[in-house]
Every structure is written in C-alpha cells, then in structure tokens.
Inverse folding.
C-alpha cells in the first residue's frame, strides 16, 4: 500500500525541540522545530503522527527539567495535537531485522511511520533516514519549501 502524502511523521528530536523552546531549555534549532510544527498543525488535511516511543523518550528527557504538572500538561496537549502510533514487540522485531539503516532507534521511528503510511518524516537528522524506503525526510527549516499539496 502506498504512503499517504497527507500523513507526516514527527521524529522525537523535533518534539523535544518544540517543548524545550517553549520553556527556554535549549537554544540550538528549537525555534525551527516550533515554527515548523505550528506551520504543519495549521495546514488543512494534514495528519501529524508521533510514536508512543517518542512520547516516552520526551518524558524521560524532560521529567527532570519540568515540573510534573507542566510535563503532564505538555503530554496531554501532544495527545490532542498528534496521532499517536503504538509501539510494540512486533515493531521492535521488524526494526531489528531491517538491513537498511545503522541507527536502531531511527528504525523504530521509521516502522511507526510505516504503520501510519506517512510519506514524510520531519527530523533534525535527515541523514539517518536517507537509506530508508518510501519516505521523504526533511528538516524543520525546510518545511515551507516542501511541496505539500
């Protein structure tokens, strides 16, 4: 089955940058993540996807930097804004058996994008996704240059 041009997968690093920028936790590249996500969220007909793994990774990364209440609020907003794809044992096994990438965590994310039939993956590390099939990786700063229909 062909990937859907209206389905866009958001990599964990972009989600973390988005939340960090909101609270002034990092300086590098976070503004681009925020601008790109707001742009995509405002597009009619586009569905944005994240994996349940990404939500867990974001939680682990930020739980020592934000209060429990703030982090809980951010995760609830995420659940409202994004479609969350469940990550399970079968996905892990398929990713581990995939021959076409070096980074296992990126293979997990790729497998989640496949489940949602995403044609695009927004990531800060496009080079990690260039060997993967049937997907177009792009950086947040490229979002306005993408030919979304």
């Amino acid at each position: 089955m062909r990937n859907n041009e209206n389905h866009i997968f958001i990599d964990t690093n972009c989600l973390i940058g988005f939340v960090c920028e909101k609270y002034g936790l990092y300086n590098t590249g976070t503004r681009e993540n925020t601008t790109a996500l707001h742009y995509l969220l405002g597009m009619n007909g586009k569905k944005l996807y994240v994996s349940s793994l990404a939500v867990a990774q974001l939680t682990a990364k930020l739980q020592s930097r934000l209060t429990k209440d703030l982090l809980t609020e951010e995760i609830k907003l995420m659940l409202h804004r994004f479609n969350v794809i469940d990550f399970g044992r079968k996905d892990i096994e398929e990713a581990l058996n995939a021959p076409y990438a070096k980074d296992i965590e990126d293979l997990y994310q790729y497998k989640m994008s496949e489940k949602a039939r995403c044609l695009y993956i927004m990531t800060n590390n496009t080079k990690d996704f260039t060997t993967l099939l049937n997907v177009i990786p792009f950086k947040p700063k490229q979002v306005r240059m993408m030919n979304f229909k």
Summary: Helices lie at 12-23, 30-41, 52-62, 68-81, 89-97, 104-115. The longest helix spans residues 68-81. The longest strand covers residues 4-10. Residues 4-142 form a domain with the Rossmann fold fold (CATH 3.40.50.1010).
